[in-house]
Amino acid sequence: MIIIDGPAELSGELTIQGAKNSTLPLLAAALLCKGQTVLHNCPNLSDVDTGLRILEHLGCRCRREGQDLIVDNAVTCCEIPEELMRGMRSSIVFLGAMISRCGQASLCSPGGCELGPRPIDLHLSSLRRLGVEIDESGGWLSCRAPEGIQGAYVSLSFPSVGATENLILAAVCGKGTTIIANAAREPEISDLCEYLNRCGGRVYGAGESCVIIDGVKELFGCEHRVMPDRIAAVTYMAAAAVTGGNITLRNVDNTHILPMLSPFEESGCEVRQLGGCLNIMAPRCLGAVKHIRTMPYPGFPTDAQPAVMAMAALGRGTSVFVENIFENRYRHAEGLQRLGANIKVEGKVAVVEGVERLAGAKVDAADLRGGAALVVAGLAAHGRTEVTGEPFIRRGYENLAEGLANLGARIRSQEE
Ligand code: UD1
Asked: Which residues are catalytic?
């Protein structure tokens, strides 16, 4: 668990980790590349470890040297065992690369998770369009591409991040041209395509809603620096906001932060962006964040909603959240309420009336971003807050407690 003695007032500088959500598809891309892939700026997270265990199970040799991951591709197997699939839902992103590389793939269906049902129908229907035969029985997916991956026109009914990544990974070494309409536009997709293109791929339009992929025969592994984690950055920004802090974040891509700036501006924070750095100075009295609607990129990201809700809990006035991406993404509201927040949830809407102060309590992290939001609120709460369920938080944050302690918070993690 994480133990916080609040309230804190954060100040100082911190370097933001590389993006988890970019590292995982990049590891899947390593399966497609001949020779060696070297990824710099890779965060040390349990989800990344799961990705490496999957690669090792498939026959690759992987090692970590500080923030670098080195993968030597030597695929011998095309099945992901159940415990690795269950360990991380986003393991599904290995499917496209496996089927393209081996002509077949077998893995268990990832099932539901803490954010509610997370179907993979879009992944499967779009891979079928590329000539993949998929048999779903007994919770297993057995996939074959007897004629190889065939380029096709695929229109996604929703711009799913994972489905877009799977399609790109399947099609990059396929036959002919694949066009993805209504593709997701998240920066992590551009990061993946930048790497694939450097390895010899021909992917055009990443970051736009129409992505065109001209299949190539082979890809050759090379070096790549993983983009900065925009969600880790916004979590620290929220931590500064609720504590009346003044912090500077290094290793930030400021264009990725733009869709998340409005709640900080609305609540009275002063944000200055310079090169790869961001400085945030919180006001003495935080205002409401007003209105947040989560949307696919470049809208406000669902992953940033919990931390910003922790801000709203202390912002003077009323804030309204509409969660449009995941069905069950307000579980942190209960923990925030335990700390004294005034939140009413009705379906996909949450109304937050800012309170003057929060008081420390024992709370439980039910998911990764929700857990981080409870830590953010705990920094502002008076007295001791204990957040259990730290393993959820470790899935996405490299040393969250240590990072906040370096900024002046009295916080530590402890085995339960
Ligand atoms: C990725 C991110 C996650 C983020 C999410 C939305 C990774 C590892 N994870 O997850 O942190 O919260 O994007 O920005 O990058 N859907 C379907 N059918 C499908 C696929 C998705 O109905 O086949 C629905 C989902 O249930 C959800 C919505 O589409 O409601 C968005 O999901 P998606 O964009 O696919 O998210 P992930 O790739 O799982």
From this structure: 113
Structure token pair of residue 319: 């804030």
Residue positions counted in the chain:
416
Query: What is the residue whose two structure tokens read 């990049």?
Result: 26
For ligand 1, atom 38, name the residue with the nearest CA: 162
Return the pLDDT at 208: 97
- Beta-bridged to residue 11, according to DSSP, are 246
**What one-letter code names the amino acid at 217?**
K
Distance 45 CA to ligand 1 centre (A): 20
The predicted pLDDT at position 88 comes to 83
The tens digit of pLDDT for each residue in 359-411 reads: 999 999 999 999 999 999 999 999 999 999 999 999 999 999 999 999 999 99
Q: What is the pTM of this model?
A: 0.97
Instruction: Please give the distance, rounded to the nearest whole angstrom, from the Cα atom of residue 162 to the centre of ligand 1.
Output: 6
CA 128 to chain centre: 26
Cα maximum dimension of the chain: 64
Q: What is the residue type of 308?
A: V
- Angle of helix 368-380 relative to helix 305-314, nearest 10 degrees, comes to 20
Q: Is the dihedral of CA 247, 249, 254, 256 positive or negative?
A: negative
d(CA 167, CA 397): 27
How many whole angstroms from 334 Cα to the centroid of ligand 1?
Answer: 23
346: buried, middle or exposed (CB in 10 Å: 19+, 13-18, 0-12)? exposed
Residue 348: per-residue pLDDT:
96
Closest CA to 369 of 214, 260, 281: 260
Report the alpha-carbon distance of residue 129 to residue 143 in Å, rounded.
13
| 3-class secondary structure, 47 | helix
Burial degree of 148 (CB within 10 A; 0-12, 13-18, 19+): middle
Determine contact, residues 270/228, Cβ cutoff 8 Å: no
167 lines ligand 1 (CB under 6 A): no
Is any ligand 1 atom within 6 A of the Cβ of residue 302? yes
What does residue 204 show for φ and ψ, rounded to 5 degrees? -120, 145
What atom in ligand 1 is closest to the CA of residue 89?
Answer: 39
